[in-house]
Each structure stands twice: as structure tokens, then as C-alpha cells.
Amino acid sequence: MTAGFIRISDTNIITHSFTTTIENWPSSFRAELFAIFLSLIISPYGCRVDINTDSQNSINIIQRIHNNPTFSIRDYFCLPNNNIIINNIVSIIKTKNLTLRFNKVKAHNNNYFNKRIDQECKITHYDSTPALVIKQQYFDNIQFIPQWGSIPIERKLRKFITDSSNIKNYFFFLHLPQNYKYKDVVDWNITLWILCNNDEKTETNFE
């Protein structure tokens, strides 16, 4: 997964560009958030930053949290995903006293700069450059970050624990001697939902 940004002068000339590979929890939303985060890292203190992005989700979540002074660390861990990178974005905005102005760019609309950074990210995706790792100790408002192995959990914590527990129990159940012989004939997806007391799926089929 790759992320990147280009910096444009007031006369629409590209002055800088940067792309990198990033790890863990791949999604287009995460890549867009990471691109915004990278652009804020290089921004001078106390300046106004104009960000052009085709990700309306990124704009919405950053504005919602940044404009909410009561948003707590606990609230971050209730976000569906990408809570650490979102926290880092909001933290760096406040620390560097940045003023952000978002411009929504329509995706796949032949915007030159949007196409340019997409092309550069595609090239980076296939090179051998090591992934960029952000050292979390520079964002000390979160003192403890839950991890799964050595991977930070950047999803809603309660749901992650529930999902991982369900998967573990699923494989244990599937590999019981009396069940393993049915692994190819039972719709285990529906069966798992039933075992988790989900009332929306109430049948198991044999085909």
C-alpha cells in the first residue's frame, strides 16, 4: 500500500513530491489519511495548509474531530478504523498551530495533479523502498497503544477483540474431529453467524 503527496506553489508549479509504502490495515481510506498526515509533517509552524483530496471521508473525519474540543482518547478507540493515524493528524494540527482548508477534488476527473500523484504512487508500489514507519512516541497524548503481536490495533478495540475471538473459536470448532469432515459441505459463514447469536441469518445449507 502506498501514499504520497505533491506540493504546489501559488503559480501551480510542483515544488516537491513524496511517495512511500506504508504497512498494516490496507485500505484506500488509510492511504488518503496517510497522505494528508505526511503533508502536515513538512508544513511550517503556524501556516495555512490547502489540501486537495478526493477523499470526502478523510475531510469529514478530520474536521469533525478537530472541531470537537471534547473528543477524548477513549473516543479515538471507538472509531471504526485508522484511529492512531487520525489522532496523529489532529495532534500535529494543534501542535504546529496549522490552519487547514480542504478542497474536495472529484476523483477520476482528469485532474492533472491528482493523476500525477496517483501515477507516482503506482510506481512506488512496485519498488523495493522500505515502508515508512512513524515513531509513535512523538505523539504522547496516547500513552498506551494496544497491539496484536507487534502490530498496532487501529480499529475499534471492542470490535477487534470480538472478531479475533470469533475467528479463534471458529477454527477451534471447525477442527474438532466430528466437524472437520464437513468443512467442504457446510456453509460455515452462516453457521458462524448463528453461533454468534446473529438473528439475520438463520439457516445452514448443504450442497
UniProtKB/TrEMBL annotation:
Pfam families: RNase_H. It comes from Rhizophagus clarus. InterPro entries: RNaseH-like_sf, RNaseH_domain, RNaseH_sf. Residues 17-120 form the RNase H type-1 domain. GO terms for molecular function: nucleic acid binding; RNA-DNA hybrid ribonuclease activity. This is Ribonuclease H-like domain-containing protein.
